[in-house]
Amino acid sequence: MIELRTPAELEGLRAAGRFVADVLDELLETVDVGVNLLDLDRVAARMIADRGAVSCYVDYHPSFGNSPFGKNLCTSVNDAALHGLPYDRALVDGDLVSLDFAASVDGWVADSAVTVQVGTARDEDQRLIATVERALAAGIEQFRPGNKLGDVSYAIGHVAKDAGYSVNTQFGGHGVGRTMHGDPHVPNDGRPGRGLKLRPGLVVAIEPWLMQGTDELVQDEDGWTLKSVDGSRAAHVEHTVAVTDAGPEVLTLRRAQRAEATA
């Protein structure tokens, strides 16, 4: 069921979005060569506890997961594209890591992700990150009253394919509100002018993700982490966004993005 949020409900979602953004800001400051993935998860756990928030991941057990997730954060490294289950691994120079975080604050959920290079940057990784970030911006730009959901999906897919990447539509964006995953599904490719008409109050997480050499996934033996079938590296970005009368409102802008928006 697709729900449209009232102005009062959007206030709750804004608070959740700000908290999720603050956690990702802290994680981005923590990521470095030698930092363990479990340390990153502990940062998220501490901030959840300090805020009195609730993890959306610890007890999460959808049909595609072999067991409850059990951690507070997704850490997808190198060829891991999505749902990276944190484990005892220290980041090394040249790693590419995606951080995906969702939490409930006073009953309202926000979801966001960012991909960052660790230590020495690779040109091909920089290009991949730049492409998913452009795709996210293009999708957000279309998330406005009167447009169709297909306009959002098409904008994302067009950026990705124009840059030479193939697009997987199995996993994509989704509605958020009282729960982390709800209707509608937002594919990362589609046909313009098709699908749900966008109206003020609709809130979704828009999340492009791409792999350098394929659009096919394989599940890791941990029962959660989804990796590229050919071992190529992946990048994933995401924002929770609301349709308003004035256009799209990004609820999970991080500190640098907020500063850029007001500059």
Automatic annotation (TrEMBL):
Q: Where is the Peptidase M24 domain?
A: 11-245
Its family remark reads: Belongs to the peptidase M24A family. Methionine aminopeptidase type 1 subfamily.
Sites where the protein binds substrate: H83, H181
Q: What is this protein called?
A: Methionine aminopeptidase
Instruction: List the Pfam families hit by this protein, alphabetically.
Output: Peptidase_M24
Any single GO molecular-function term of the entry would be: initiator methionyl aminopeptidase activity
- The reaction(s) this protein catalyses: Release of N-terminal amino acids, preferentially methionine, from peptides and arylamides
Stored SUPFAM superfamilies:
Creatinase/aminopeptidase (SSF55920)
Q: How does it assemble?
A: Monomer.
**Swiss-Prot/TrEMBL keywords:** Aminopeptidase, Hydrolase, Metal-binding, Protease
UniProt function note = Removes the N-terminal methionine from nascent proteins. The N-terminal methionine is often cleaved when the second residue in the primary sequence is small and uncharged (Met-Ala-, Cys, Gly, Pro, Ser, Thr, or Val). Requires deformylation of the N(alpha)-formylated initiator methionine before it can be hydrolyzed.
Which species is the source of this protein? Curtobacterium caseinilyticum
Enzyme class name: hydrolase
Residues the record lists as binding a divalent metal cation 2: D111, H174, E207, E238
What the entry lists under InterPro entries is as follows: Creatinase/aminopeptidase-like, Pept_M24, Pept_M24_MAP, Pept_M24A_MAP1
Which Gene3D superfamilies does the annotation name? Creatinase/methionine aminopeptidase superfamily
